[in-house]
Batch of 2 targets.
Target 1
Amino acid sequence: MEFKKLYKGLSDGHRVRILNLLEDGPLCVCHLMEILSLDQVKVSKQLRYMKELGLVDGERQAQWMVYRLLEPEHPLLARNLECLREAGEAELPLVEDQKKRAAILERIERDQDPCPDLEGATCCAR
Amino acid sequence: MEFKKLYKGLSDGHRVRILNLLEDGPLCVCHLMEILSLDQVKVSKQLRYMKELGLVDGERQAQWMVYRLLEPEHPLLARNLECLREAGEAELPLVEDQKKRAAILERIERDQDPCPDLEGATCCAR
DNA sequence: ACGGTATATACCAAGTGTGGAATATACCAT
DNA sequence: ATGGTATATTCCACACTTGGTATATACCGT
């Protein structure tokens, strides 16, 4: 991955939050909307932008689009997210986002919500 | 420093090369021009941009402007530059730039070129 | 085929970054 | 005061990013 594209990806708060979430595993658009409290068009646009940068990729699962990191083990990305998480709330609610993600996954498990099948676990809540 | 500004700074090849050079110590514009083989206006503009981002600051020393990192110990910046240097020539000639910088400093020492006084050493070659 | 849900795209306006050419400013030496 | 060197700024054009609103597409269940 070109360094330039990585940094363009990281130079926006919403995008960093999305990358941070995807680092823990794939997610569909509706969950990203829910966690970020962002409307659908904005999320879609950011995802498209990051897809063009070569940071993420999306795959259709039934009616949902499930996004994932293109290079989940990319050391520079991982390292930067780590530092940003350590920076705490003052910068971005990254750890809080991770908790919300976990809560959503639990809810899905508990309520048997229909969701695309994804590496053993389900993804979507509605 | 806001993370956003750091990444905006890093998302351009010339800027990364400048930041990498300044990490080793302050430099004046003419040396940056020489090492990057870039014309004066472009260097000045990138420096201004990074000054607005809060990444660098410039101080006049006689007829020269000497630039330095605003937060030389910033861990995220240091870490990213380190990784980019390790990435090697394919991405950016960062290590080569460092060598050029050292060569210039030697040349100054040897030829007693006039330069702004800076933390003991001199800086400018002309 | 139809209506609903999830997601993407198109279009337009505003803001931001980037490049080139010309010009201005600051300082030095004489 | 003058001319030279180092650096910054201005202006203009162009590409990129971002936000809003509206619309289109894809898939599902019936």
Target 2
Amino acid sequence: MSERLSEVSDSGMTERAIRTQGDILEVATAEFAANGYAGARVDEIAARTRTTKRMIYYYFGSKEGLYLAVLERVYAQIRRVERGIHIDEMSPDEALRTLAEATYDHHTTHEEFIQLVSIENIHRAEHLRQSQTILRENVTAITLLEQVIERGVREGIFRDDVDALDVHMVISAYACFHVANRHTFAAIFDRDMLDPALQESHRRLIGDMIVATMTDRRSAGGER
Amino acid sequence: MSERLSEVSDSGMTERAIRTQGDILEVATAEFAANGYAGARVDEIAARTRTTKRMIYYYFGSKEGLYLAVLERVYAQIRRVERGIHIDEMSPDEALRTLAEATYDHHTTHEEFIQLVSIENIHRAEHLRQSQTILRENVTAITLLEQVIERGVREGIFRDDVDALDVHMVISAYACFHVANRHTFAAIFDRDMLDPALQESHRRLIGDMIVATMTDRRSAGGER
Amino acid sequence: MSERLSEVSDSGMTERAIRTQGDILEVATAEFAANGYAGARVDEIAARTRTTKRMIYYYFGSKEGLYLAVLERVYAQIRRVERGIHIDEMSPDEALRTLAEATYDHHTTHEEFIQLVSIENIHRAEHLRQSQTILRENVTAITLLEQVIERGVREGIFRDDVDALDVHMVISAYACFHVANRHTFAAIFDRDMLDPALQESHRRLIGDMIVATMTDRRSAGGER
Amino acid sequence: MSERLSEVSDSGMTERAIRTQGDILEVATAEFAANGYAGARVDEIAARTRTTKRMIYYYFGSKEGLYLAVLERVYAQIRRVERGIHIDEMSPDEALRTLAEATYDHHTTHEEFIQLVSIENIHRAEHLRQSQTILRENVTAITLLEQVIERGVREGIFRDDVDALDVHMVISAYACFHVANRHTFAAIFDRDMLDPALQESHRRLIGDMIVATMTDRRSAGGER
DNA sequence: CATGAATGAGGGTTCATTCAT
DNA sequence: GATGAATGAACCCTCATTCAT
């Protein structure tokens, strides 16, 4: 199952098979994201596809197998974005801001990814844990951050008691929240966090926060 | 439906009826939080209760009615926490840190609440929107924040381009993420964000961040 | 599951429930006997019942559960027959003949039982082994035989190198075969072993065989 | 369909085609014997074969066609055994014992044959009846028995009210039972009828029985 | 208030079989 | 001859919900 997506580029499959699978995956991604794992209907997915329900089982074995493939697909996508970021010639704080904004941009434009992550968490990540591919490839997400922070600390402009994983968490939390909690937030406060009018300032805010925090004199070191 | 909980304190119900309802709600909260709306089973809830499935329908009308009552219950709980916070004699930055930590404390100790919020978002808050009680009472959550920020801005120590809702969002995002994305984060990075060993530093970090951001000279207004 | 049938006489069930279950069991017995475990259709069983398919799952949990209940039912029936046999005042050979004929009579008039046993054997008795009730109660089937044979050996009229289980096997084999292999035998040799015209002589033959064998001078002990 | 196997020896087929068919038949025999007709899976058979599912349909037309071919194969095998028995110079009782033991030997060493016969009986021999080959060739199974019994009766040492088909039935019943009911018998009485330690005495027992019965003075003729 | 019995609609899954290449 | 892709019918099972007592 974990290998399916990579096989797509192999020649073990016909053009048509690739298209069919891709078609199913696209529809399934939307359905699972919109209704949760239990709420999604295999029948409904099949109905929105060029093919039949039977093909879903032919290619993915089960509802869970399909869900897993969907998960791998969206995680593969975010990896591609991460690989496209280049921060070699920036100052540490510039780099930090760039990384923060890249995450913000990805998450706010990939609602389905965030929804699937939420769903996965409701299920205690039990499906995610089955995918060695995802686990293996996605740890590297913080490699860039580690390098930047190390440089900032070495140059004496970053506090040294906040590690890369903490920073990643803060950035992810901020970006995720925009999408994941969009609806309850809007219902209660009547503000759509993804309103284009807010985008620029929100995009800047996460950069501000992370840079202000890492370069803050009072917080860093001292009495702690 | 939305009025049911308030009836509890009325005298239209026997002691026993109140206990039965409370019992059902407690079990239902756990079940919905653990499995999502579609994933939760009415049978399972009934089985874990002292009463029978028939009682669930007697008191709550339907699965959706029960879910709504559960939502109202957990939202009522967070309101009680908010009402208990007193920041009148603190400096704006102290107050900000206090509010941030209170949110952090609540969310990290009420996993079920966060899970239910996640679930509600997957369903585009369509249930939440049905409860006037929740909507009416929970907007007030930012009243305190508004006062603090206004004071800080007036005193010239806070930037003025970040409003109370933004600050609330940032704090909520941080606190939510710890619980909501706990499992995927742990699966990929092998770090449990709720690990007691991390609690102190994580608790401080959100205060640091919000204070550093609001008091940062470079970020506020000016050149941008 | 194993306790179901005995519960029937308890008061934990309404009259109606007992009837419903009995109805289902009767139809299911016929269906499984006629089509095998895999070949039987739950839909078909439900259709031939006063109730619906849902009730089958309500009472028996699964196709397998139903099959198991069917198995217990037919095995309970044969136990009742066995308990009704009285041979206390017969001579050993008379008793032997009586027991043989009782088995012959039961098997040839309970086609479904034999078919279910055949089916069970195709599945390596994996269901039977799950029923402690059947296993526990049906070993006693040879108690009578043991007593009779012991008496015959003691009186010196039976050979002593054939034990009760062997005799049981011989009798069962003969009686089973009439029903279990009825169709292939008829197809090839054009003789219906259950033809009423043959019944008398076939009934006597198994008695003849078992008595002749046990009392045969040449076979017993001696030169072997 | 019924003619397929005979084609094998014709030259209308390549070496390879013959091997492929044999391969399929062997696997199919095991699958049908182990799971029954409905329980056997064409996919599974194909998977255990060197060839693909398509080939099964190419050679055998359908699941039923394959099953029929399997049936013909195992019945052809037992015919070969029968043809190998020579009893011309034996006394009637010796010959009888020899035939009984031959059947016992064949059945206890051809579990799949017995299982397939059981399965066929569950389906009321409806497949068997389609194969003229099997029906035509297997009636001859009792020719030898007929001759022996006739001789015994003529010589006055055999009773004359038990015909060859009855004897065949008794012998078959005994031998079949060892294999066909092996599992339920073992489950209930904890004795494996095919235990090598029992083989010798069980092998002798059927001979004893049939000879004792046919030569028994009391049973034959007389008062009946 | 409370309980076991009952239900209809639909959900996931599987099977034998066929098509296109 | 051989292969992967595709299919429709049906199969087992489950769920929220209601009824009778």
